[in-house]
Amino acid sequence: MRVYAARAFVLENIDILLTATVAVSVGLLSALDIIPENKVDSLILAVLATLSISFLRTRILASQDVRRHRQGVVEFLSDFPSGLTERRNSSANSLLIGVTLSRTILVSSVSMARILENGGKIRVLLTDPDAEDAAIASHNSGMGVDRDYINEIRHRIWYTLRQLMALARREGNLEVRTTATALKYSINYLDISSREASICVQLYSSDGTRESRPIFVVGAREYEWFECFRGEAEALWNSASPFDWVRLSSSST
Length: 253
What we know:
Blueprint: H1 2-12, H2 14-31, H3 37-71, H4 84-90, E1 93-98, H5 102-117, E2 121-127, H6 133-136, H7 147-168, E3 173-179, E4 185-190, E5 198-203, E6 215-218, H8 223-239, E7 241-242, H9 246-250
Parallel strand pairs: 1-2, 2-3
Antiparallel strand pairs: 1-4, 3-7, 4-5, 5-6
Helix pairs in contact: 2-3, 4-5, 5-7
């Protein structure tokens, strides 16, 4: 193990070690009058050139580190990040996507009403309650899924839609759509069109005994991933159908 560590150290710092070796050798040979004086200047220039290459390499590596830092590193979480609810409750332009979003709407309905009254815009995309079972159970595709579970999820979607209808009766820009597509994740796309825009993504898992994970947040610093999920969110929205509120009156759930 020590041999491998030593070899890695030498390979990583070979330019510095060679520079030091040449510098020491030139100094000793010059002090012993072994090298003619007219050759010393040339050797010194060679050492300086080697040092310049080493400095350039260091600068390139430092620049790469800074670039990676600016791009940001996506941190995977096992639960929703602190402050998510507060951000959602103050976002003037949001796109919320999920199978039921029952917890989201329950927690934020009062704030959503205030946002709409103040001229904010909220878009909500749910799984269609009449979609196929695979789409209904997409956020928990484990072995524990049965008919009772499917019916419960459908009921929760209808309940969320009723809450949203109450919000829609107020003045404001609220749009609700449903999709028959099996969603793979939920999204809180907040502060759209602002510099502080962010997307909280929860990947659905097959383990229904715990919160689906991983959960992560991407923003301007994670530009590549932010653009990826922004495009996904908008594509899902554009392919979904506006919900017809008349369906609620004919629903028995």
